[in-house]
Design a protein that fits this description.
This protein starts with a helix and ends with a strand. The radius of gyration is 27 Å and the shape is globular. The protein has helices spanning 2-23, 31-42, 58-69, 79-110, 129-140, 142-147, 154-172, 180-196, 201-218, 232-244, 258-274, 276-300, 319-330, 332-336, 338-352, 368-405, 410-414, 419-425, 432-437, 439-454, 514-528, 540-549, 557-560, 573-581, 583-587, 594-615, and strands at residues 113-114, 117-118, 469-470, 478-479, 618-619, 633-634. Strand 1 (113-114) and strand 2 (117-118) form a beta hairpin. A two-stranded antiparallel ribbon has the order 1-2. A two-stranded antiparallel ribbon has the order 3-4. It has one domain (2-634). The chain has 638 residues and is mainly α. Helix 8 runs parallel beside helix 12 (276-300). The chain has 26 helices and six strands.
Length: 638
Amino acid sequence: MLWPSLLCVVLAGLFWQAAVNSWVPEPYLDEIFHIPQAQKYCQGRWSYWDDKITTPPGLYLISNAILRLTWLVTGGCSAQALRMTNWLAIAAMPLIAMKCRGLIEGLLAERQFEGGKRSPPSREPVLSTYAFHTGLNIALFPLLFFFSGLYYTDVYSTLVALAAYWNHLTRVSTNSAVTWKSDVLVVVFGVASLAMRQTNVFWVAAFMGGLEAVHAVKLLRPPPTSLGQSDRETKFKFYLWRYSQGSVHDPPLNKAGLEDVVLCVLSIAIAVCCNPFRVLRQIWAHVVVVILFVGFVFWNGGVVLGDKSNHIATIHLPQLLYIWPLFAFFSAPLILAWPIQRLANILGDNGSSNSNNNCTANSDPQDPCTGQQQAISGASWLSITMNLTGIAALVPLTLAIVRYNTIIHPFTLADNRHYMFYIFRYSILRADWVRYALVPVYITAGLLCWAVLGGVRQHSSGIDRPSITTTNSSSSSLSIKETLHTSNDYGTPTIQTASSHPADNKTSHLAPSLSTALIWFLTTALSLITAPLVEPRYFILPWVFWRLLTPSWSIPWRFLNGASLLKRTDSGDNNNKGINQKKGSDNKAAYDVRLFVETAWFILINIATMYIFITRPFYWKNPDGSLADGGQVQRFMW
């Protein structure tokens, strides 16, 4: 059923192409620059360049090559033929996206520690249904699918960035050193991405290069070491030494708090600084891409080509606020399902807590289990306090950004053909108080997006509850192995247990590691905050990578059948025995139903925006009632 679904995406793209070519045969909006430029290349006029174009010529080069290879160049490349090259890109999009997601899940499955060493990959990761369906939905993402019918740069820009990500995932999927061949591919994909859009440098260099730097220090694989009772100075030196050896603090995102963020950044910085040559060997190809980009900027006299006056880089922090409502709108099926996820997870915690805990309830202060519980409780309260303080700090920070850094680009106010014109008109431009009233919306949407990215904890995998050992039977201090907060590059704690064989884990459920999420956010910030214009298309790549990293979630059958886990009693071994007897049925999970709702939601948005674009044309008029812009038909679009 899934492969016919892929065919449906391809046919839907053809239908959209036919509709645009039938109703809008002439170049529209930015196509009036892109299509003539591509046609000049088809004629062999390689030195010609339209100064109104701000992006590099990658789109024109690749479409020209495709048309020549497919024998479609006739009479200088028609608008219809050039648009069809974007259809090829949207047809290839789900294949590359699902392959990337499959490699991410393969990393989660294969990179488990066994006695302090990684187990070698035993087979090629099998493409999961979640990976397949995720690839389909990425291709249906409204901002991508809509522009697949027009001759814009966005579809190929995203496709090439995904191809670079595919190569990156392939590089880090092996425990051995990278090869020179893969290094060359990094440079090739990096240059190709830059040829599509300049801001891609942040994704192919900063994002993927940052992930590979973390991967390089984790390959040091120091043996597990435990620390007994000691003073603060000894502990401090011990952890500095462990960090320098590559034992970085990198828990899964769904188990990380504010204190973990500080430790994660600190440990990675120490590990990288103490192993510069190892890191440089891993990322030198990304450094070459950055050097080439810097050279282009000096040669060009700026980042953008052509019209530099209307694209001056500036600090625009509200971009980091606008992105969350946009994510929440397009990913509404994932966002709205989060309360259900939490409810099911709470029921799972209540029903399975005793099965994974060898300590029975008691009040003996000398009992080791009591010491563990007290220490864990104290750590939990510290974490909760820090997290609440961090969330509270978001309010004044967001208010300050809105007050002092809100920028309204002239293009946003001048062009009523874009939806963003109406969003601004009826929100932050309506009244000053509306800007501040939106602060809770920004914060809530952002927190929900992070919660969805972290996913929920799945207890059936067997790696969700690492053990904690005491150093002394009469002491409440804990000795936690340093591998407890060490994870593979994309996910869960790397701790082996009896049921943690890669083949037994539902790896699509596993959350990305904290370092991956932080590097994603940093890259998103770098790619957005220098742009004064708020353009939905600028959010495509941040959303695509966020969506690829988002773990799956499926409602357990026991939750669907109404078998409340709260009814289970705390009866020790008998209770555990009952749980074990039902292990097969309890662990059985349904398909991630959010994917179907997400598909339907994207189809609905696509139909609505395509219908408006085709059937709701309008005209600009001068104050005297005459037609402006030469009587050209105007249409609504992203």
